[in-house]
Specification:
6 helices, mainly alpha, 0% strand
Length: 149
């Protein structure tokens, strides 16, 4: 609530961080969020905080959801027990082998829920910051009146 900037800047920064957190590039979320926040006039501090949306509690939900949604959006048929050996794919660290089966569907599938979460958190944060700051200003302007009486 005390991050500098307008309510829009704080909310936009947080929203960008959350959208970034939905992408499959774990560890790089902050590197995506800060430049985008800067470009749209959002708070870079709030963007960094928003990337914490991807955490050990949410990632087990984010990753399968974004992968399944991405597969559906790309028109790939997903069988009931589709198995990808991630250990074998990551053992060689060959991006070309990881891109098609894992990263591409996750990136494509992360956009709709990421944008939806970003919009929801933008609205909530904007209203909360504006309300907090208005109450604080009101409280500060009343303080001198009480001491003079």
């Amino acid at each position: 609530m005390r991050i500098g900037g307008s309510p829009h800047a704080v909310a936009a920064g947080l929203a960008i961080g959350i959208v970034s957190a939905w992408t499959p590039f774990l560890g790089l979320h902050i590197l995506f969020a800060i430049p985008f926040a800067y470009l749209i006039g959002g708070s870079m501090v709030a963007a960094a905080i928003g990337t914490a949306f991807a955490n050990p509690i949410t990632c087990p939900i984010i990753w399968p959801l974004s992968w399944e949604l991405g597969q559906m959006m790309l028109g790939n048929k997903v069988e009931g027990s589709h198995h990808i050996d991630l250990g074998a794919l990551f053992a060689h660290l060959d991006l070309s082998q990881i891109w098609r089966p894992v990263l591409e569907p996750m990136l494509i599938g992360s956009l709709p829920p990421g944008l939806l979460c970003g919009a929801i958190f933008y609205a909530i944060t904007y209203l909360a910051v504006r309300s907090f700051r208005n109450r604080r200003i009101e409280r500060l302007t009343r303080a001198p009146e009480r001491s003079s009486q």
